[in-house]
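The record is kept unedited without comment:

——
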Amino acid sequence: MTKSETGFAEINGAKIYYEVAGEGQPFLMVHAGIASKSMWDDQFDFFAQKYKVVRYDMRGFGQSPPIADEYQRHEDIRALLDFLEIDHAYLMGCSMGGGGCMNFALEYPDRADALIMVGSGPSGFSYDDWSPSPLDEAMDAAYEKGDLEQVNEIAMRIFVDGTGRTPDQVNPALRKKVYDMNMIALQNEKLLGKDVPLSPPAAERIGELDLPVLIVIGDLDEDYISRAANFMVDNIPGARKIVMSGTAHLPNTEFPEAFNAHVQAFLDNL
């Protein structure tokens, strides 16, 4: 394990747990909405060999307690970087975390050196023929009943197993790790304040982005993610897309060596 600095940053009225390791160009990693900082275990150690890597738990995730106040994820990113005295960084975010990173890059373009979107899309992205899947509807029904275990299991079916794959085809240790991370978030959700959306949303401002962008998705992820990836490629000059086979929403956790190689190649070409 890489030797790291850890602590809590008291920022924007919240108490955010963070870890920092390595030296050099700062590289911030922001987790998905079904995870915590631990989803980056295989990236944190690897990239700390060349960069100053930062990861943290968003409000209500992992070791960061939920706060009832309204907030914006990109402003928590800014405040954390300020706390750590980091002026600019590479940004890598998965799913919800990627949306926060893109919003940060739009609001603070001089502080974002590159953007890596993993299983993610711009805030406000939508398309006319979207409709909820049977699993989406089942999850909503489980929420209404307050059955968080069932909600979590359905989330694993959607985001970890992915399209056309059964639970027994997924590494059980990986599946349990994500389940445990997401259960903390589900238990804290009602205690967490509203995330105030960027206005106008990133999907309407995407043409403002002027930095290197890498998009990584799994071929078993939801159709929404595939369409969001294509939308970004079509609207961000020079954006590059990689589709990893045999994985869903968290490709970095299932195939870390291949994922790390893709990201390192992207960074080496900056």
In short: The first helix runs from residue 41 to 47. The mean pLDDT is 97.
